[in-house]
Amino acid sequence: MAEEVSKAGSVVPRAMVGAYSIMGICSFITLCVYCACFVDYSVLEAPYPFLQVFVTSTGSVGGALALVSIMIICIFLSVLNFMAATSRQIFAFARDDGFPFRHWIAKVNHKSGSPQNALVVVYLFVIIITLIVLGSSVAFQAIISLGVLALAFTYELSILCLVWRRLYGTPLPPYAWSLGRAGLPINIAGSVYGFYLMFFAVIPPAYPVTAANFNWSPVMFVAVMGFAAIYYVLFARKVYQGPVVVCQPMYT
Predict the structure, then answer these.
(1) In angstroms, how far is the first alpha carbon of the chain from the final one?
(2) Which of 77, 119, 120, 250 could join 87 via S-S bond, C-beta 3.0 to 4.6 A?
(3) Does pTM top 0.85 for this prediction?
């Protein structure tokens, strides 16, 4: 989404660091308060233990509903952010000729200035995945389990490329915002944490392992990567040249 931000080279990094800093502090405070209110282990026997903690700590169902309402609003706003970011990623990848039906997906609405076709693709994809749970909850969990592993892998790939570039590659291009000498240690720490996250993303959540509780994320990850490799060999390698530096948007 940096393409839609003025002075993105300095504004976007500061927004990212600021957002994560505020989120980390608020999350830590929330966790401390929640743990302080978790005084009765019998709530674990409730159908929804976290709701029972709200009821026990506030002493009323209304207070618990108010806290849950705040959570629902936060989740709703987060989903809007995820949809916006995902649609921009799909648009950029399609614009660079790396996605099926790339010419239609990469079109931008002239009036709104937003990639509406990419938004439609994201919404339809989410709806299809949601409908899968009606037929099989195991299949639904198998698909959504891919999220953490795939996200960690993309972060890991980007960070490791940056670490390699800092150590052995050509100097980085000019930039408006930098961590200075702390950049390389932070990148290395981030890559170590990425491996840690990927390890716990692939282990089974419970034992004994059955088809219902099996962690399907490695299987789904290999399947998606296999599909991407086949698509690249057969089609994409003929047109995909990597991310473009300057590209005029295609308006509808």
Answers:
(1) 20
(2) 119
(3) no
Give yes or no for residue 137 having a pLDDT over 80: no
Cβ neighbours of residue 238 under 8 Å, at least 6 residues apart?
none
> How far apart, in whole angstroms, are the C-alpha atoms of residue 157 and residue 22?
26
DSSP-assigned letters across all residues of 54-91: HHHHHSSHHHHHHHHHHHHHHHHHHHHHHHHHHHHHHH
- pLDDT per position as a tens digit, 154-206: 889 989 998 998 888 778 777 788 888 888 899 999 999 989 888 888 887 77
| Residue listed under structure tokens 């995820």 | 82
**Residue 36: pLDDT above 60?**
yes
Q: CA–CA separation, 56 vs 211, rounded Å?
A: 36
225, HSE (Cβ side, Cα atoms, 13 Å): 11
Of residues 167, 126, 131, 150, the one with CA closest to residue 224:
150
pLDDT value of position 247 = 52
Do 64 and 54 form a contact (C-beta atoms < 8 A)? yes
Residue type present at position 181: R
Type and span of the H or E element at 164: helix 146-167
Number of H helices, E strands in the chain: 9, 2
Tokens of 215: 């962690």
DSSP 170: P
Residue 160, classed as helix, strand or coil, is helix
24: its two tokens: 């980390």
Phi first, then psi: give them for residue 238, nearest 5 degrees. -80, -20
